[in-house]
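FW: tagging you since you asked about this chain on Friday. Here's the raw sequence from the shared folder, copied in full. Didn't touch anything.
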Amino acid sequence: NVMYLTFFTPMQAGVQGVITGPGIIRIGNSYRFNPSLAGPGDHPIVLTLINPTTGCETVITQTVVVGSPITVDLTTSNTTICAGEETTLTASGAATYSWAPNSGLSCNPFCSNIGNSVTAKPGLTTTYTVTGIQGGCIATASVQVTVRPVVPIRIQASAQQVCQGVEVVLNAISNAANYTYVWDDGTNTFA
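HL: got it, structure written out here
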């Protein structure tokens, strides 16, 4: 990115000016500050005004801070969840973060300029993007959270009431294709 510096001619005729400093490029009577040329760090930009009639000089200095480029990384505790479940999204590499879209996020509705971790509980498969900001530098990262639908299932018993010691047959019933189930009575698991 290039920052344009505008030099306004003073009201007094004949006054001349020049802008100097690291990363300054002069094109005709205009000046540009190029952060890539200046590099990271604090850069004093100097405007010198000279009145040739009086010989008086006015110097104005403004410091421009150029931050080092950043890289934002985004991780999730689970990239695939079942409907109704949640996952944690964690970003690193910047000072503050903004999250989008904010639907399904724990920060909703205020997901800008916050911390590096949020909880996501999307209703459907969603790609989340985080924008990290540090020292004037911006970077983004994205992750897709895939939401699997919950398999509709019901249990059918051969009898609703029985005496102790009488067996009951339980059937798992669902219209969903390609599913497996595991029975669990709280103490033992059966396939």
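FW: Residues 7-11 have pLDDT under 50 and may be disordered.
HL: agreed, and The longest helix spans residues 35-38.
FW: great, closing this out.
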